[in-house]
Amino acid sequence: DYLSIHHYENPNRFATGPKIFENFLKQTAELISQSRNPKLKIYVSEWNAQCTDWRTGLYCGAILNVFERLGGSVGMAGPALFLRHVSAPAWDNAFINFDHCSWFPAPNYVVMRLWRINYLPLRVALEGDPGPLSIVGTTDKSRSKLVLKAVNPSDEGVSVVLEIAGGSETGKARLKLISPGSLLERNSLASPNAIRPVTGKVEATGKIYSFSMPRYSVAVLQVDLNPD
Predict the structure, then answer these.
(1) What is d(CA 29, CA 189) in angstroms, rounded to the nearest whole number?
(2) 160 has which bridge partners?
(3) Which of 74, 168, 187, 220 is most exposed, with the fewest beta carbons within 10 Å of its own?
(4) What is the DSSP pairing of strand 208-213 with strand 217-225?
(5) Region for residue 14 given its phi and psi (left: phi exceeds 0; alpha: psi -120 to 50; beta: otherwise)
(6) What's the pLDDT tens digit per position in 163-214?
């Protein structure tokens, strides 16, 4: 039923690696479609970037967007390493890092949690030039909200303008932003919340929503649809 694939990325390829892997998954899906078992799905049973600094957070957001875009062929995905005691430095890429007293989330955990909290099951079409951004838009079955998940892996800030098409009335918008400023920023036992989501500023004019993404940042925009 599933073809299991492992994929560990060099953290220095946090910007280019996700697109390269997306192309590989597309090629694999095409081979499957021409095989004797065209219903076979891809299971990315281990994926991650090999570090616990902010590069792995940027990589995480982009690769999760890839999995959503390829949901028809990627049936499951599971990250690794899940848990690591801080006395074990060899695999310093775990989502959860701990000692005998406490723990801290790596950037990949922080981003994956933000993506999960804002998960909606139906992907919506996006038009326009995203520039360096990795972007996915989703909605729910009742079309009550729209979520835009974006990653800016470039070293320059990007202004994002989203215009919602169609007949839906729009309402309040909320923006969560993670922008540590440095690629080498990380959480630790001493500072477990150095990298965390904060409330960002979003401007609304009718159905047009605008916000800024600093360099090396991720953002989640949630917009209410058909408000009472």
Answers:
(1) 41
(2) 211
(3) 168
(4) unpaired
(5) alpha
(6) 998 777 888 999 999 999 999 999 999 999 999 999 999 999 989 999 999 9
